Amino acid sequence: MSRRALLLVNRHSRHGQQAVSDAIEQLKKLGLELMEESTEDPMHLPELIRRYRQQVDLIIVGGGDGTLNAAVDGIVDTQLPLGILPLGTANDLARTLGIPTSLADACQVIATGQVKQIDLGWVNGKHFFNVASLGLSVQITQKLTKEAKRRWGIFAYAATAIQVIWQTRPFSAEIRLNDEVIHVKTVQIAVGNGRYYGGGMAVTHDATIDDQRLDLYSLELRHWWQMLPLIPTMRQGRHTELRSVRSLHGREFEVSTRKHRPINTDGEITTYTPARFRVVPHAITVLVPAETDLSNFT
């Protein structure tokens, strides 16, 4: 008996329009019965998923991290397994889960892969897969255009970061962890659930998406040029070992600032400070390559 899947594709993602027909053909050949839906507004994705909860066996989302972030609340509500077609620019969640970027291989994972439980992050009522952050990353998000991502791909993140780094100014924040209150002057606070974000940067060197913890770092720099030597270390998650970077781990954090500051979750601005963060252990199931050990993706 074939499995029934709801296929949600962001046709405006970097590879969405050209890849959707190939994906449908490949998935059907692999024995999946597909019901395809699309929407111009990603905010409608959770409702589409809820609508099909009794009609399908799994959800397949084709797009980048922003599309997956838009769909996550519907996946949590229905508890349907998630298959991922990495059609975006960065595809950080797919990278964290070891899902190949090849469309044919990703379809094979959906058809024959194993089901794995993963954690989710949560901030102010919004779930996220990878990272929620404020400060420098928000400025990059606001400046990074769809046109740049389509034209330059993953290199658009680095190019945009270089443009905004010199304009960055430190801000004051208060971080609460358990009974401890920490006052910081920082250019960025990031709270990670998964491992990768921002086009392949690592939250910290040993982060995994099923470790039932959140990893927070704060970039406590005084001058913009101090950011430049940090960039190479962020690819391996080794920036947290430097004196100018505060690193904390826990199941819950609270972050407040003097004025409301926007927070981006998986690359989309979705809430503002003050913010309460927490991990939701084993929140959903995803299809990953057979024999995958998520701790190996470090």
Automatic annotation (TrEMBL):
Stored InterPro entries: ATP-NAD_kinase_N (IPR017438), Diacylglycerol/lipid_kinase (IPR005218), Diacylglycerol_kinase_cat_dom (IPR001206), Lipid_Phosphate_FormReg (IPR050187), NAD/diacylglycerol_kinase_sf (IPR016064), YegS/DAGK_C (IPR045540)
Domain DAGKc: 1-127
Molecular function per GO: ATP binding; ATP-dependent diacylglycerol kinase activity; metal ion binding
GO cellular component assignments: plasma membrane
Superkingdom, taxonomy of origin: Bacteria
Family assignment from sequence similarity: Belongs to the diacylglycerol/lipid kinase family.
Name this protein carries in UniProt: Lipid kinase
Organism: Aliterella atlantica CENA595
Upper taxonomic lineage: Bacteria, Bacillati, Cyanobacteriota, Cyanophyceae, Chroococcidiopsidales
